[in-house]
């Protein structure tokens, strides 16, 4: 460099990132598990690796690689319409069905019964197609992680011998799994059904008999750790 010349100004890394004052508020960036200064999220700075599509928000490479998998709830009326017709006479109140549910994710149907956790192709049990389908949203949980999660449930909370028609049934399982996958519960008209039945004199009278009933829809395959199903 010649004597008397002035070195060109080179912005520091800090100035290029336009870091805010150390005391500036921070909040989690969408799709990222840790906080970033509010100024970045408002467009005042840009982090390496973040891509901003036209008119869109910044997305990380990790976020772009995550696939979304649809999650659905299959709802079956085990009474095949009988509950709707007979419940006013027997219970003194209207019940629209005796509900069995299952979770559909990663192209399979998963449910719980007296034989433990089972799986099959959607609609593959002898119950046939569901009476209704509830869209629970999407999940980023991969199939591998989901199967590991099911394995842990099958060895703890949802063993076959833990099944109880009123207190720990297929709908308990569906509700648990739905929250793990999407953060959403299944509809309350399903989970509240046992309490509605037991709140009636007829339900209380029949409870000793009903407690002994074990339900396992035929046609599914018992879930196993090694390959998803046996």
From TrEMBL:
Question: So what EC number does this one have?
Answer: 3.1.2.22
GO BP: any one term: proteolysis
Class of the enzyme per the UniProt entry, highest EC level:
hydrolase
Signal sequence segment: none
Keywords noted in UniProt:
Hydrolase, Protease
Boundaries of every PPPDE domain copy: 69-211
Provide an example Pfam family for this protein. Answer: Peptidase_C97
Q: Which domain of life is it from?
A: Eukaryota
Which GO molecular function annotation, any one, does this entry have? palmitoyl-(protein) hydrolase activity
Instruction: Please give the catalytic activity noted in the UniProt record.
Output: S-hexadecanoyl-L-cysteinyl-[protein] + H2O = L-cysteinyl-[protein] + hexadecanoate + H(+)
- Give the family this protein belongs to, as stated in its UniProt record: Belongs to the DeSI family.
Q: What is this protein called?
A: palmitoyl-protein hydrolase
Query: Mind giving the lineage of the organism this protein is from?
Result: Eukaryota, Metazoa, Chordata, Craniata, Vertebrata
